[in-house]
Amino acid sequence: MVLYDDKEMIARIDRLRKSRHAVILTHNYQLGEVQDIADFTGDSLELSMIAAKNSAEVIVFCGVRFMAETAAMLAPEKTVLLPVATAGCLMADMADGEALRQLKAQHPGAVTVCYVNSTAAVKAECDLCVTSANAFELVRNIPADREIIFVPDRNLGGNIIRATGRPMIMWDGFCPTHMRITPAMVQARRREFPAAKIIAHPEVRPEVAELCDEVMSTGGMCRYVKSAPCRELIIATESGIIHRLRKENPDLVYIPLSEQIVCPDMKMTRLGDVLRALETMQPRITVPEPLRERAVLPIRRMLEQSARFAPAQ
Ligand code: 13P
Ligand code: SF4
Predict the structure, then answer these.
(1) Same domain, 25 and 69
(2) What is the pTM for the complete model shown?
(3) pLDDT digits 0-9 by tens, 231-289
(4) What CATH number did the domain enclosing 240 receive?
(5) Can you give the residue range of the structural domain that contains 245?
(6) Residue 280 C-alpha to ligand 2 middle, in angstroms?
């Protein structure tokens, strides 16, 4: 195995990115070294929109499997690479298509809404997909006389209920990283930094969200910080986003709610993995065509509907 230093690795990535006609998409939670070589860094909604519209032949998706899978479903003609094949999402793995079919059978007529953090098999059972950037508006838009099944995140679901007043039948999934945030942690940080605003991701528990000043997607956080009404911000989400916030707005002070809020899967991808993916054109993410045809429908519906709600939350 040849070992390169970072500078050499970046030069090689750049050469291959050009020769392969590739675009590197990076989620806001990725390591700084990976964010820094990206063509685009963003939240799940922004990255899926770019995947759908970009003219590149190859998408190197630095994130987790459901994100690369979503890109592969939206752009089946492109080669989608996930540099670390085992980078998954524990929450997405908490729901499965068969159990969801059984739940739907108990609620005929319900609108089934999935968070984008779900597998293709789950999406194939759903009417509408949402991300943290558009979930509140899209659920508000569902006719009031329809029951709603929401899968898999009970915390995002609880926060939607809190914001919209819409009752929903909830799957029992959660994000183990965001579950680590407790009300006591928020209260302690508030006492330590009374002038700071606390911004949280809607995957935190509703009783945590209640104590924060703003609840928004990672993309929403990046926009909020640009005109923040304060100098200090307490960040109640995965720590990776602080790299981007600091880079774009270096004059503000960012305080992680806790050093423990780290998603192990989001931290798997290193520069060397991106280089290897571009060299070998592996690991490639594909979704079998009959499954893709069904699973892409709720994603397309989401993209059509959320275009009416710009800018994203
Ligand atoms: P965003 O879409 O807000 O970036 O969230 C994705 C995610 O996985 C949060 O844990
Ligand atoms: Fe999944 Fe949570 Fe990691 Fe996001 S932070 S990818 S929801 S496990």
Answers:
(1) yes
(2) 0.96
(3) 999 999 999 999 999 999 999 999 999 999 999 999 999 999 999 999 999 999 999 99
(4) 3.40.50.10800
(5) 177-256
(6) 27
What's the CA-to-centroid distance between 10 and ligand 2, angstroms?
A: 27
Q: Which residues line ligand 2 (CB under 6 A)?
A: 64, 89-91, 117, 175, 177, 203, 238, 263, 265-266
In the chain, the number of structural domains is: 3
Show the DSSP H helices in the chain as ranges. Answer: 6-19, 32-35, 44-53, 65-74, 97-106, 120-123, 135-140, 154-164, 176-179, 183-192, 206-209, 218-226, 241-248, 271-280, 289-306
Residue 3 tokens, joined: 């070992």
The best mutation among 25, 26, 29 to test binding of ligand 1, ranked by most ligand atoms within 8 Å of the C-beta, falls on 29
pLDDT confidence of 308, banded at 50, 70, 90? Answer: confident
Q: Give the N- to C-terminal CA distance of the chain in Å, as an integer.
A: 45
- Ligand 2 center to residue 90 CA distance, Å? 7
Tell how far the Cα of 238 is from the centroid of ligand 2, in angstroms.
Answer: 8
Distance CA 122, CA 238 (A): 25
Judgement on whether residues 169 and 181 belong to the same structural domain of the protein: no
- Looking at the CA of residue 92, tell me the nearest atom of ligand 2: 1
Whether the per-residue pLDDT at 311 is higher than 70: the answer is no
Same domain, 196 and 162: no
* Distance of alpha carbon 297 from the chain centroid: 19
Model pLDDT for residues 44-83, shown as the tens digit of each residue: 999 999 999 999 999 999 999 999 999 999 999 999 999 9
Considering only CA atoms, which residue is closest to atom 8 of ligand 1?
A: 117
Report the atom number in ligand 1 closest to the C-alpha of 29. 4
Other C-beta atoms lying within 10 Å of the C-beta of residue 105: 8
Atom of ligand 2 nearest to the CA of 66: 6
Residues 83 and 106 in one domain: no
